Amino acid sequence: MVGEAPRRPRGAEGTSGRLTAGVDDVHSQTRASPFVLLAVFGALSVGAIALSLSSAPPLAQEQLRGAAKATMSASGFVLRDDNSVVVASSSGQSVPNRAGQRVAFVVVYQAPDAVQETEVDQTGGNAEVIAVGDRAFRRTGSTWTEVASSPGLGARSVATILSPLQGAAGATAVTQDGDLYSFEPANLRGLLTTVLGAPPSEVSSPHLSAVVRDGELTAETITARVGAQRLEVDLVFSSIGSAPPVNVPRSFAGAGGA
Length: 258
Fold this sequence. Notes:
31% of the residues lie in helices and 36% in strands. The protein is built from four helices and eleven strands.
């Protein structure tokens, strides 16, 4: 057993009689000290292990945080972002026969500061925007136009794209059911403002969940009520670490264009 002093062989008992017994007593006191110290150190080691286990984050929390960080640190990814808004009853359930709105985005992210976002509306039309470094471009039909230029523009766009992952990377109150993790982000109010675009005072009943597969966060869902509406954001991450490059359009109108 850890920390238990090993048994010492008893001293020989024979013709030496009481003298030998007295010497054995002295030796016993001298030799007991190392065993006492070992026992103390053993107790300290066991205590340290117990302390580390009690203060360590739960396994589910570590898994979710690690997966979110793995996806964030990839060289790039493709993100499918489906947003829906439906009318909700006072209990928070969707109201039957009340059509909602849905819009989808496909985002290609390339580290450190390049984003290409394509919006697909319900009629099949689409708009496309590219932010690279300090510059931004918009496509209308087949024509690209430079629409903005400001320091850190691409980095700010990336920060918005990464904000749901950042929330999962600092997750607390994590529960796990298979590969599905429910959690609370460290900065819930800030995340809801960024993702839902609504003031925190108007948001109620938020719920966040994520899917972890092969050590990476591959999907995240954020739902909440804003007034009489139920908002849902479904994010699916793919091509993690193997996304296509995001480049400035070869030709475009505006400053610096061909």
